[in-house]
Amino acid sequence: MGTLYLVRHGQASFGADDYDHLSELGQRQTVRLGEYFAERGVHFDGLIAGTLRRHKQTLEGILQGMNHAGEHLAWEGLNEYDSEAVIATVHPEKLQKPSSPEMVRHHFRLLRDGLSQWMAGTASPAGMPSYVDFVAGVAGALDHVRANHYGQNVLVVTSGGPIATAVGHVLGTRPETTIDLNMRIRNTAITEFAFTPKRHMLVSFNAIPHLDAPAWRDWVTYT
């Protein structure tokens, strides 16, 4: 039996011109997660990450917190969908930067609607693969882990969409459920699978034990 730890990236720069880099808090979250792994003696035999900047920065922070160095496998199939392209399929006008809670809620309502249509095959966001191909990219990473890391601990750093897709793929959930999972994943949350050469089995979802103390209560974020 092996163990796969899927980790969502640290807090990125929601609402900024360039979302794809960690905020200062996001960087601290990643180092804290690495410290948590080190405190519990968790080591990794395999390191895999998406190719986005926030994925690389998150992995670097985790390794810093573990006081560990290592090469990782870059996997494009673990990259997040383009939320702006998804929203544009249901709201062609460019959204203003969210500056209030209501604007944030409006953003995510549109995102949910766009995801539903993309997953149903009725919308094709510009520059993105079909949902079938997106799932195949995530499933390919899971297949790689099973084929190459049986009996080992593997860390995968990615985004909320691929993590929800992995859970949905393993459990056979409906698209609506996968979207619900996606919307609730917290930054640097751990989703754990046990795996054999034949299958993955969900052990835990969206856990943040490294932030489970009053000192880190304000470090819990979703974007």
Automatic annotation (TrEMBL):
Regions annotated as coiled coil: none
Gene Ontology MF annotations: hydrolase activity
SMART domains cross-referenced by the UniProt entry: PGAM (SM00855)
Database matches in InterPro entries: His_Pase_superF_clade-1 (IPR013078), His_PPase_superfam (IPR029033), Mito_Ser/Thr_phosphatase (IPR051021)
Keyword Hydrolase: yes
CDD domains tied to this protein: HP_PGM_like
Pfam families assigned: His_Phos_1 (PF00300)
Protein name: Histidine phosphatase family protein
Organism: Ramlibacter cellulosilyticus
